[in-house]
Every structure is written in structure tokens, then in C-alpha cells.
TrEMBL record:
It comes from the Bacteria. Residues 390-531, 613-767 form the F5/8 type C domain. Residues 639-649 have a biased composition (Polar residues). Residues 631-653 are annotated as: Disordered. CDD domains: FN3 (cd00063), GH99_GH71_like_2 (cd11576). Residues 542-627 form the Fibronectin type-III domain. Keywords: Carbohydrate metabolism, Glycosidase, Hydrolase, Polysaccharide degradation. GO terms for biological process: polysaccharide catabolic process. The keyword tRNA-binding does not apply. This is Xylosidase. It comes from Acrocarpospora macrocephala. One of its GO terms (molecular function) is hydrolase activity, acting on glycosyl bonds.
Length: 767
């Protein structure tokens, strides 16, 4: 079996694991993101919807599982549906991506973090929180990977960013750890491109600084890092050798199986030997290939890479990338056929070479590559993953469903009987009677039950006396068959089929009263075949009149009108920004643990006894109350009339009094503005300049304005001179009568200390 050879580190959250690069950098106009642009979907400064002549993508996503979608300027899809795209800003999008990771046993996601000190910063900051929430909800590990491209002041700024923002996420139970240390990625040192012009000294300083912070540092390095040629600058070997883990970049370097094999011989094997000799973990990249460039070969290209990196002895695998629709190397669900690609777009689908591939094929392929890395399947150059799963027209209704039993012999749980593996089995405690029951999830007409024991000859022939019962409600049971002594004989597969002439049930129970081969009930597979009852597919009506009945800074109380259903409503699911947060049985609930002064969107769906769910109710948008003495402006989107150098307006809401905004010099008036996210009643503003005495006393003349829509402003406080004095902390407080506003703007018309508007902190409070 395959396994990591000569690992410098034991298995953790990146060693011995599959990691996917996660961009999370797609936004759409109107999605509510601070960047308010078609971010990474279109060119033209991202302000115009993407179209065939204005785009940055080379593949089209499968849009069927996204709650929100945004209409583009592409022609309709070839099936006639509108050409829409997703936004990473929607929590449901991130939740869906991380659910796909969980469902395909993808272990860890590396969130790409580019320079956050410009206009992208507020969106990137919020994306880190969204990824954290999705990772925690889906039990997928994640970590921050800094992409240092074009980050010219990275040596100091990346340290500040970690200390003031990103290190807080280490508290997440899902933040990746390796050797007991939080993982941090640094991508881009040593590359020869002009966008990464760093010298070795500053790069080594940053690597060692993160290690001194107690971090395990993963380095994304050039393909030819070890030799210092081609895409690698010379003189960086000391930087590369300082990493805890090395991951050479591969996108654009190989395009087919032959090139992958050449890479194995000329780079993978000697790279691994270099790392083994120095105690460095080696994490090579594996990529699926660009769709429209026809690199993928229906998975053979990607599988050959899995085979090569594992036989070379790698310590982990980095997938380039999860959602990279810009390069076309995404493994996220992608259009299967041209039917779901925009007409006349020039884009191709996963079946471009004539082989039908399901939209989740490369997720499944990645899951199988991970199993080969972990030794759960044998090392093989033959791809085990089928491109298209053929749906069984007569499926086993019990496979993977909820199952319970009267008792369990430790190590042999009832779930073994519905896992599809005849080699694992459930065994009760010794003594009779015993039972095992499966919940099919909805009512079905049962035609037959198939029972299995492990097929090995060591399981000698035995008779088990079994009765089959069924129930539609889990309380009242009807006898379907038996009790009868059924013979399990290894010579005939240790399998018994019990036909059910007539039986309707959601819950199917087997009662055991004897076993001639062992003093306990035993079952390797419990299979149920039949058809879902047609009448039970009808969903409940949509809950109506979703209403806010109360709120605080951290909670929201809701009520709604009851739904109706042909088999009866059993409960409701309350969704917060698309994610389920409560499952009440009645028509009201209170959601707690919310963030003060934050906008939320709630919907409710109804669920019936057969497991069907209604369409969501109309959304209810609620903003929680502001908490007393909480700075409502902290981390919120800002705007400005101008700034000089890199002293942008985001510095005024970062919580760091040492950083500051400064407008263009010698030009007044100037203004700075913060968007609180929703209209909130405010009554106090605190303004700060950096506290060191080097900032001499100065008077800034300014007025305060407010707006609920960002375009029409009214004066809250008239123009006046405010003295900033370092002996009193360089702080000014302005109080006024409570005013409901979303946008707060300061208009600055003079500054006696410098010919520009200056502000290190712009704080807004409820009162």
C-alpha cells in the first residue's frame, strides 16, 4: 500500500493529507460585498458584467447548487437558461464548497490571502470569516496562505496583518495544525516574475519571523526552486531550506501524461531526496488541467500526477486549485456538457474529449487520490474513479441511512450494516431477542429485503431466526415476514433475500430471536429495495408571513404562519444567510449568538413526515441592535476623496492607532466615509491621530454628515475646529443627538499641522 516515505513530520492536518487551494475571490455587482464589482469574473475594472469579450475565466461552473446567482452579459446557456454566476461573498456559496470538500474526503483548504491593504482588503477580511464558518460547519481544516504577488511592502505588512487580523482565526477548532503548530502558507518567494521582486534577505526574515511566532510554515515555491533556474531566481536556497514544508508550483508547467512523467524523473524524485535529507516535508502540486485547452483527458492526466507524487514518497498533496475558474484548473463542480455553457462563448465542458464526466468528477477523483496517499487503496497507475456514475434504477434504499439497534458489541456498530461493505458487520450483545432498524428517510413500498453476512468461508453456515416489520411513524409496526429461520451459507454468498408481498414503511426493523452460529445477532448488509410512495413526494406549502417579533444586540426572535402538507408538517428549518441555524417544531423561534449591529437575512422552510421540504419563505432582513460602547465602524467598508502613498482610508477602521489615512496634500476640502452596513442610530464619534508625541498638536476643521443611501447626505454636526493634542492621546470625541444613518462622512476643510486630512481611527458609537 502507498504511504509517505521518510516524512520529516508525522501525519497532521497537512502531512499525509490532501490540501486544496481556495481562492474565494469571486464577487458580483449587487451581492453586498464591499468591493461591489464583478471581481475576478470580468475585466474592465470589474464594473461591467462578464461577457465573451470581457471576462477572466476559461471554464463555466455548474450552477445548480447555488442559492443565489447573478445574471451576466453572456448569451443564455445552450439549454436556454440564463447565464448566471455565483458570488463567493454569499455564505451559502462557501458553505456549498466546503460541503463538497467534506463529501469527497478533502482534508484541508488553504485560503489565498493577497495584499489586503487596498480596496480588496475589507472583502478579503470578511472572506476569511466566511471560510472559517464554513470549515467549522463541515469539519474541514483550513489555514491562511499569503500570496505575496505585487505586495511590495510585504516584509512589514504581512507580519502586521497576521498579528492584528489573521492570527485570531487560530482559535478556530478547524484551523489546521501540524506538529502542534498553526499552519501558515507563504507563496511567491523566489519567483522570477517582476511581480515578486523580493531579495532573499527580506524573504528569509519573514519565514523565520513566522516560525518564531510558533507557526508551521508552508512555502509555495517555483518549480525549479532547488536548482535556482528558469522560474526561480538564484540565491534563494537558504530561504527554501528554512520552510517546514515545500510545495513547488505546477500550473502551466505540464499539459499531458508524458510531461507529467518527465517531471517525475527530472524534478519530483530529486526534489523529494533534497527534502528528505534536510527534514523538510514535501507537498507537490497536482492539477486537473485546463478544460478549454483540453488538458484533462477525462481524469487520466490528474491521476497520473497522483500516482507519480505518491510513488516519489511525498508527505502531502496540494491541489491547484479548488475554485480557479480563471485558469480552468478548478476541481469544483463544472458544466458537464455544452448544454449548460453559454452559447457562442467559446468555452468547453467536461465532456470536451467525448467522454461523459459528471460535474463532481474531479472532486471524486481528488477523494480517491487522497485515499491512495493515505494507503487506503493500493498505489496504482490505473485510475479507479469512473467519470460518470450511472444511477442504479433499483437502488438500495437503506444504503447510508440512519440506523439503530437494540444493542451493539463494541467495535461492530449498526452503521456497518448500511455502509455498502459486506466485509464489515453489526453484531449485538450476546443474548436474544435483538433488533436492528433503518430509517429510509421517506415512506416507500417495500418489495424485498436482502441480508448479508461477510462472504469469507470462515463464516460457517448458520441459521438466524428473523422477523421483518415496518412502520410509517416509528411507533406502530406491521409484520411483513417471519419469524423464519433463514440459512446463511458462504458457498452461496452468505446472502438471504426476503420478498415482501405488500408493505409500506419508512422504518424497517429486523427482529432476531436466534442464531445457530453465534449467541448474538449478526448482519453485514441490510438492504431494502422498493419504490418511494408517490404521494409522499409532495412538499409542504411555503411558510408565510415571516415576522420579526423582537431583537437585541445578539439575538433575533421570529414567527411565521404554519405550513400545510398531505402527510403532516413535523417541523421547520430556520436559515440564516442560507445556512440552517434552528429546527423548531412550532412557528416561532429565537436565534442567539449573533453579532451586534450586523445585517442578517432569514428564511424558513417546512419539513413533512416523509422528509420533504418546502421552498423557502420570503426573506426577512434584520439588523441586530448595536451593543453599547462597541465601535460600529471597526473593519467596515470605507471610501475617501483621495489618499496619498499607501495611506488609504481602510487604515482608519483597522483598530490600529499607529496606521492612518492621509488625503492628497494641499487640496481642501477632503472627506472620508464609513459604511456601517445598515441604518443604525448613532450618537458619538471618536477621532484619533497616532498617539506619539512626534504628532504635534494640530486643529482639524471638519463637519459630520450622514446618509441612508450613500448618495444624499445631511449634516449631523456643523463645521468646527477640533484640537488633536498628543498629551491627551490625540483623541477627539464628538457627541450629538441620536441619528439613524448608514453612511457616516467627515468633511475636512483645514488642518493646522499638515496640508491634508489625517485620521488614524474613525470610530462610531451608538451613544
Amino acid at each position: 500500500m502507498a504511504g509517505a516515505a521518510n516524512a520529516a513530520s508525522p501525519p497532521g492536518d497537512v502531512v499525509g493529507k490532501i490540501t486544496v487551494g481556495y481562492q474565494g475571490w469571486f464577487a458580483c455587482k449587487g451581492d453586498g460585498a464591499p468591493i461591489n464589482a464583478w471581481w475576478h469574473w470580468s475585466g474592465n475594472n470589474n464594473q461591467v458584467p462578464p461577457s465573451p469579450g470581457n471576462n477572466t475565466i476559461v471554464a463555466w461552473p455548474d450552477m445548480r447548487e447555488y442559492t443565489n446567482s447573478y445574471v451576466t452579459a453572456y448569451s443564455n446557456l445552450n439549454n436556454g437558461q440564463p447565464a448566471t454566476l455565483f458570488s463567493s461573498w454569499d455564505q451559502q456559496t462557501v458553505d456549498t464548497h466546503f460541503r463538497w470538500m467534506r463529501e469527497n474526503t478533502i482534508d484541508t483548504a488553504a485560503l489565498q490571502r493577497f495584499n489586503p491593504n487596498g480596496a480588496e482588503g475589507p472583502t478579503r477580511d470578511a472572506m476569511a470569516q466566511k471560510v472559517r464558518q464554513a470549515a467549522e460547519a463541515n469539519t474541514v481544516k483550513w489555514y491562511v496562505m499569503y500570496d505575496l504577488t505585487d505586495w511590495l511592502n510585504m516584509q512589514s505588512e504581512v507580519k502586521t496583518d497576521w498579528l492584528t487580523k489573521m492570527s485570531a482565526h487560530v482559535a478556530s477548532p478547524m484551523y489546521a495544525k501540524q506538529n502542534g503548530k498553526p499552519v501558515v502558507g507563504l507563496w511567491g518567494f523566489g519567483f522570477s516574475e517582476p511581480s515578486r521582486p523580493f531579495a532573499p534577505g527580506p524573504c528569509l526574515d519573514v519565514v523565520n519571523w513566522f516560525k518564531a511566532q510558533g507557526c508551521y510554515v508552508m512555502g509555495g515555491v517555483p518549480t525549479h526552486w532547488r536548482q535556482g533556474i528558469n522560474d526561480s531566481r538564484p540565491g534563494f536556497i537558504d530561504v527554501y531550506n528554512a520552510y517546514d514544508m515545500i510545495s513547488p508550483w505546477m500550473v502551466g508547467r505540464i499539459r499531458n501524461v508524458g510531461e507529467a512523467d518527465n517531471h517525475y524523473t527530472n524534478l519530483l524524485v530529486p526534489d523529494q531526496a533534497h527534502c528528505n535529507a534536510r527534514g523538510i516535508d514535501y507537498q507537490p502540486c497536482v492539477l486537473p488541467g485546463e478544460v478549454t485547452a483540453r488538458h484533462r483527458a477525462h481524469g487520466d492526466f490528474m491521476w497520473r500526477q497522483f500516482y507519480n507524487v505518491i510513488r516519489a514518497g511525498c508527505q502531502g498533496i496540494y491541489i491547484s486549485m479548488f475554485d480557479e475558474f480563471n485558469e480552468g484548473n478548478q476541481i469544483a463542480k463544472t458544466a458537464e456538457t455544452l448544454a449548460t455553457v453559454p452559447a457562442n462563448s467559446g468555452l468547453l465542458a467536461l465532456d470536451e474529449d467525448g467522454t461523459a464526466c459528471s460535474s463532481d468528477y474531479y472532486l471524486r477523483l481528488t477523494g480517491d487520490g487522497g485515499r491512495m496517499l493515505k494507503g487506503q487503496i493500493a498505489l496504482t497507475p490505473v485510475r479507479p474513479t469512473v467519470p460518470m456514475i450511472i444511477v442504479d434504477p433499483n437502488p438500495n434504499l437503506a444504503r447510508g441511512k440512519s440506523v439503530t439497534a437494540s444493542s451493539t458489541n463494541p467495535g461492530y456498530p449498526p452503521s456497518n450494516a448500511v455502509d455498502g461493505n459486506a466485509g464489515s458487520y453489526w453484531e449485538s450483545l450476546n443474548g436474544f431477542p435483538q433488533w436492528i432498524q433503518v430509517d429510509l428517510g421517506s415512506t416507500a413500498n417495500i418489495g424485498r429485503v436482502v441480508l448479508k453476512l461477510p462472504p469469507q468461508p470462515a463464516w460457517g453456515t448458520r441459521n438466524q431466526t428473523i422477523q421483518v416489520q415496518g412502520s410509517t411513524n416509528g411507533t406502530t409496526y406491521t409484520n411483513f415476514a417471519g419469524p423464519t429461520a433463514f440459512t446463511f451459507n458462504a458457498a452461496t454468498g452468505n446472502m438471504v433475500t426476503i420478498n415482501i408481498p405488500s408493505g409500506t414503511a419508512r422504518y424497517v426493523r429486523l427482529n432476531f430471536s436466534g442464531n445457530t452460529g453465534w449467541p448474538a445477532a449478526q448482519l453485514a448488509e441490510f438492504e431494502v429495495y422498493g419504490t418511494t410512495v408517490i404521494g409522499e413526494n409532495e412538499p409542504p406549502t411555503v411558510p408565510g408571513n415571516l415576522t420579526l417579533t423582537g431583537k437585541t444586540a445578539t439575538s433575533v426572535s421570529l414567527s411565521w404562519s404554519a405550513s400545510t402538507d398531505n402527510v403532516g408538517v413535523v417541523g421547520y428549518e430556520v436559515r440564516q444567510n442560507g445556512t440552517a441555524v434552528a429546527s423548531p417544531t412550532g412557528t416561532s423561534t429565537t436565534i442567539t449568538g449573533l453579532t451586534p449591529a450586523t445585517a442578517y437575512s432569514f428564511t424558513v422552510v417546512a419539513r413533512d413526515a416523509a422528509g420533504n421540504t418546502s421552498q423557502p419563505s420570503s426573506p426577512l432582513n434584520v439588523t441586530t441592535d448595536a451593543a453599547p460602547n462597541v465601535n460600529l465602524a471597526r473593519g467596515k467598508p470605507t471610501a475617501e476623496s483621495s489618499h496619498t502613498q499607501n495611506l488609504g482610508s481602510g487604515n482608519a477602521v483597522d483598530g490600529d492607532a499607529g496606521s492612518y489615512w492621509e488625503s492628497a496634500n494641499n487640496v481642501f476640502p477632503q472627506w472620508i466615509q464609513v459604511d456601517l452596513g445598515a441604518a443604525i442610530t448613532v450618537g458619538r464619534i471618536v477621532l484619533k491621530l497616532p498617539p506619539p508625541s512626534a504628532w504635534q498638536t494640530r486643529t482639524q476643521t471638519l463637519s459630520v454628515q450622514g446618509s441612508t443611501n450613500g448618495s444624499s447626505f445631511s449634516t449631523i454636526v456643523g463645521s468646527a475646529g477640533y484640537v488633536f493634542n498628543p498629551t491627551t492621546g490625540n483623541t477627539v470625541t464628538i457627541t450629538f443627538a441620536g441619528t439613524s444613518t448608514r453612511y457616516v462622512r467627515l468633511n475636512i476643510t483645514g488642518n493646522t499641522g499638515w496640508p491634508a486630512g489625517q485620521l488614524s481611527e474613525f470610530e462610531v458609537y451608538q451613544s
